[in-house]
C-alpha cells in the first residue's frame, strides 16, 4: 500500500455499524480470563533490606503461609541474591511466586558495591528473557519469566532519615524495577515520629531524584484508591505469623507486655494497604510496567549497544535486514583490516629475522676471515722456520762432508807419511775456516 493510501485510510472516519443480532465477540474478555487462568501467573518479588529487618516474616504474613526461611548471618563478604520459587493456588488461580532475598545487604564494612549484585541479578533476568525472545524457536508461552516485578525496599525504622546506602541503592534500581519503599517493624516507632519520618523519607527521595513506583491512576475503577494510597507511601508495616486472641477473634498480631499490635488493623500499621496495593489491585500493573517500561529500556539499550537502530543517519526507517547487512559489512571490513595487519606484521617479522640472520652470517664470515688470516700467518712462520732449519741442515751437512773429506785425506796422508801427518794436523787446526765452522755450529 502506498504512503498516500495509508494516510487516506487512517484519516478516514471510522463508521459505526449496528449489528443485526448477537455475534459473540462480547465474550472476548471472558476468553482472555479463561486463557490466563489456564496458563497461570508468575509474580516475582525482590526483598532488599538489612539482615533481620523482617523480610521473611512480612512475606509469610502477606501470603498467609510459611515459606522456607533461613536466617542470614551477619558475616557475608558480599551481597548475594537467593531466589526461591513456590507454586501457590487460590480458588482456581495458580501463581508461580518467586521471592528473591538480597542476603547480607548492609553487613559489609565497605558498602560501596552493595547495589551491584542486585542490579546484575535484575539484568540477568532481563537478558534471559531477551535471549528467549531472540530465539528462532521461541517458547514464551511456557517460559518461566523470572524478571523482577517489584522490589520491596525495607527501610530501618530509625525515625531519622534514609541512610546513604538506601538512597544509592534505590537510585541504582529505580530504572530497572518498580520500587515500593516500606518502613519495616513500624511497631518500634511512635505515631508522631512515624508521620514525620514518612515525610522526611519522601522529601529525601524527591530531592535525590529517586523514582519510586506510583500506583496508576489512569484506570477509573482504581484511580481513587490508588491516588489515596500514593499519599500513604512509604507504607509502615508490621509482620507476624503469630495469632493472638483479641476479643473473641484470633488475629495475626505481635503481643507485647503493654498491649497487642494487630497486623491487619489499619490504625496500627499499613500492612493491609500494602497487601491491597501489591496483590489485589496492582499486581497486573506491576507485571505490565516491568514489561513495557523496565524491560523495554533494557532491551532498547542492549540492542543499540549491539548496533541495531530503527532509523539511519537521515532519520529514514532502517530495517533489521539492513542493520544486519551493515553490521556484516562492518565486520567483514574489520576482519580484512585485521588480516592485513597480521600479514604486515608477519612480513615485518620475517624481514627482521632475515636481517638478523644476515648480520650473524656477516659476523661469522668476518670471524672466519680473521681466523684464516691468523692461520696463514702461522703457516708462513712455520714455513720460514722450516726453510731456516733446512738451510742450517744443508750447511751442517756441507760442513760434515768437508770434515769427513778432510779426515779421510788426513788419514791417507798419515798412512803415507807419519811425520807429515802431524804437520798437516797442525795446519788443519790452524785453518781459519775450520775455526769459524766450529764456532758457528756452537753458536747455533
Ligand atoms: P534475614 O533473612 O536473616 O536477613 O532476616 P529477615 O529480614 O528475613 O527477618 P526475619 O523475618 O527473619 O525477622 C527477624 C526478627 O525480626 C524476628 O525475630 C522477627 O520476629 C522480628 N520481626 C519481624 N517482623 C517484625 C516486625 O514487624 N516488628 C518487630 N518488632 N519485629 C519483627
Ligand atoms: Mg529472611
What is the compact description of this entry?
Helices cover 55% and strands 13% of the residues. The chain is α/β, with parallel strands linked by helices. Guanosine-5'-triphosphate binds at residues 51-57, 71-72, 101, 185, 187-188, 238-239, 254.
Describe the structure.
- The chain has 444 residues and is of the alpha/beta class.
- It is built from 12 helices and 9 strands.
- It has helices at residues 3-11, 28-39, 55-63, 115-134, 164-173, 191-207, 220-230, 271-281, 283-305, 320-416, 418-430, 432-443; strands at residues 41-48, 80-90, 93-103, 150-155, 179-183, 235-236, 243-246, 249-256, 259-262.
- Helix 8 crosses helix 9 (283-305).
- The chain is elongated.
- Mean pLDDT is 87; it is low at 433-444.
- Magnesium ion is lined by residues 55-56, 69, 101.
Order of helices and strands: HHEHEEHEHEHHEEEEHHHHH
Strand order of the largest sheet: 2-3-1-4-5-6
The level of helicity is 40-55%
Radius of gyration: 54 Å
Structural class of the helices, strands and pairings?
Answer: alpha/beta
Beta-strand residue fraction: 5-15%
Please tally the β strands and state the result. Answer: 9
Bound molecules: guanosine-5'-triphosphate, magnesium ion
Q: Categorize the overall geometry.
A: elongated
